[in-house]
Amino acid sequence: MTQPTPVRRVALALAAREMPALPLRAGKVPFGNCRVCKGNACGGRPNMKNAGPCECPRPCHAWAAATTDPSILTSPAWTSAWREAAAVAYHPGGAGLTVVDLDNPDAVTWARQTLPATRTVPTTRGEHWIYRGAMQSANAVRPDVDIKSLMSYARWLGPGTGTMTALPDAVRALPAQKPSTARPARPVVTVPALAGGGECRHRTPAYLERGIAMAEQRITEARSAVHATVYRTFLAVLSTHGRCGCLTDAHVARLFAAAHARGESPRHCTDAWSNARAALGM
């Protein structure tokens, strides 16, 4: 009989406490989509809704893969994921919790001066403040402050210390107070018109779709040097499709979503896209 790995034992312990768990690869990244949903073919909407566990047999869709069902966590389909897993994450919203992710000492100082005390967990660079109650997740509500709750996941770093308190209005209000510069808008791709008005070969749906799908896969499967991989991939897409009017906001959104799933911030994605365009003189 195969012995459970240490990370899977942690996941089972979390599940027993009604905290939906899932495996993470090195770099705090979820495992790739299962074959049925490869390349986000299902639109990233498990069960055709924006909530609830994924019905796929393998770890899929990041937060939606999290489960409290021990039969799923110990199923053969998940065995290889647990063997490769470097850590365990959980879905705070699925457990009725909200994590205020404070990414550096300055953010921690702000929280201590502003937010009600609650359970805290040390992280590599800052702290997680955990409140009882769920809300919509939001990134960059303040410099180096994210909210992880519904439709999000947080790395499990231990139970923490202190008494968990109810989610305060001060946290619920943070997304509405988010500075307009905290999350840059996705860049709009503008390209020169075709000379002579000829039809672009890239407008063939299969050709363009294959190119975007391959770019998504390249980013998703990056195991190291993610920043560089994202930049090189953006550069390759723009060099092939960026001068003929093929790319749309929907295509850019797919590339950004793949990068976000690998841990890239909106700012990093925007910078990488802008730098790639500048390098090509666009």
Counted up, domains total 3
Outline type: globular
Taken in chain order, the helices and strands follow as HEEHHEEHEEEEEHHHHHH
Instruction: Give, in spatial order, the strands making up the sheet with the most strands.
Output: 5-6-4-8-7
Strand content: 5-15%
Low-confidence stretches: 44-52, 181-199
Tell me the span between the first and last alpha carbons.
Answer: 59 Å
Q: Describe the sheet with the most strands.
A: 5 strands, antiparallel
Average residue-wise pLDDT: 79
Radius of gyration: 20 Å
How many individual helices?
10
Number of strands: 9
Alpha-beta content class:
alpha+beta
Q: Helix amount, in percent? A: 25-40%
Structural overview:
With 282 residues, this protein is an alpha+beta fold. It folds into 3 domains: 6-89, no CATH class; 93-177, no CATH class; 195-279. It has helices spanning 6-16, 70-73, 76-84, 105-114, 169-172, 174-177, 205-220, 226-241, 249-261, 266-279; strands spanning 21-25, 29-30, 87-90, 97-102, 119-122, 127-132, 138-142, 145-148, 154-155. The strands form 2 sheets. It has a 5-stranded antiparallel beta sheet. Strand 7 (138-142) and strand 8 (145-148) form a beta hairpin. Helix 7 runs parallel beside helix 9 (249-261). It is globular and about 60 Å long. Residues 44-52 and 181-199 have low confidence and may be disordered.
